[in-house]
Amino acid sequence: MGCTQLIAPSTLEALIPTPAVMSFGKSFRSHFPHLDPAVTPLNHGSFGLTPGCVTEQQKRVCETQEGYSDRFHFSDAERIYAQQIQALARYLHLDPRNLAFVTNATCGVNTVLRSIKWDFSRDRVLLHSVSYAACANTVKFLADYYGLQYDVVKLDYPLEDDDLLARFHEKLATGSYRLCMFDMISSMPGVKLPYEQLIQLCKQHDVLSLVDGAHGAGLVDLQFLDTLQPDFMTTNLHKWLNAPKSCGMLYVNPKHHATIQSLPISWNYSLQNCQYIPNPTTAEDRLQNESLMHNKFWFAGTISYAQYFSVEEAIKFREETCGGEDRIREYQWQLQRDAVPLVLAEFGPGAKLLQNSTNTLAVAGMFNVSLPLSEKYSVLKQKLVSDVHYFQNFREKCAALMFSRKAFLPLVCHNGELWVRFSVQVYNELEDYRIGARSVKSAVAEVLDAELSA
Ligand SMILES: Cc1ncc(COP(=O)(O)O)c(C=O)c1O
């Protein structure tokens, strides 16, 4: 008798060592084989970085799609799309019926803003001054082309949450707004907004909420979607959830399933199974109403499904290779706690972490530190903080230098200071922040010195 038959399966399981979850840090970059080994990656917040196992899955889907396009599109794609949405919903603990894939957060915002039946003679949108420019531009487009009105809440960080909420409240209480668009986590600077209270504030004032959660999935718990039920929310999956580019998610409150439309408008607009049934009497009718997000979004013109059909693989990577969301987050927070004093020391006297008195601006994956500029640059600093075009030009020159050093960090002028945003990801370790801080500090000095001697 072989020994395995003598051991009860549960005992056997205990004897087999579970594969050790690899430690994070630079050695973990082996899971990201496409990354140039000479690069110090400190800007995950912009585009994310896809693990090799996920790009392999993406490649397999491409090959399957190309292998027999007709069968893939006519027979398999819809079913696999639904499976991937289910897997995502299970992972995020959300109701899959409210979710659809979109290519990115910008597309999510466009999908919502271009699905609303605006009354352009009176409707007004509220956004904030740190809104992502691509999304703010969608509002501006509707204003320029159709006359939609909008207002901007000025946000100048570091802001206390109460102060931020009071600024929104002051505007919303006027009763002048149909929709309010706000970030969960802003881009530049990378700070968290009190999005749950903002959703409640919108409800209180009967204003539609559109939550730009581009950085949400993979950084914060999204269960608030099903409990607080904002009207709309979009998040990227390619930033912090390790899905391939271009992969995002759109959440739509059930009360808008009838009116939301895919971008682009496609076949689905007039398909029978994409129409909302006002007073459903049969189980079939109810099922149709509950399936509208799927029916409207799974096919809206020919695309590669490779990124959407790699979502389950990305989740597996996070669960099995990384050891789960808690372990990831724990590492990010710890590394951030260690990296902040290092960056402050590298930047020198006057450098500040962007934070408020209750520490609510922080997110696990990003922090912002001001880069103090020496007195000799005071005239140039004045230009940087007051002239957008001058700053853009300066930023481009700094970026070119940082690219050449293979350690790029994004810069922003905000509230009279120059800020550097650092990302924190499982493949980072403390030394990266020394390299990054030196790269950006020397690039800025080099560009400003060249300006002084011009
Ligand atoms: C707050 C915010 N909104 C929207 C976006 C747009 O994301 P994407 O370019 O993937 O559409 C970003 C990207 O960084 C962002 O930070």
From TrEMBL:
Protein's UniProt keywords contain Hydrolase: no
InterPro entries, sorted: Aminotrans_V_dom (IPR000192), PyrdxlP-dep_Trfase (IPR015424), PyrdxlP-dep_Trfase_major (IPR015421), PyrdxlP-dep_Trfase_small (IPR015422)
Regions annotated as coiled coil: none
Gene3D superfamilies: Aspartate Aminotransferase, domain 1, Type I PLP-dependent aspartate aminotransferase-like (Major domain)
Record key words, sorted: Pyridoxal phosphate
Domain Aminotransferase class V: 76-343
Protein name: LAQU0S01e15324g1_1
Organism of this sequence: Lachancea quebecensis
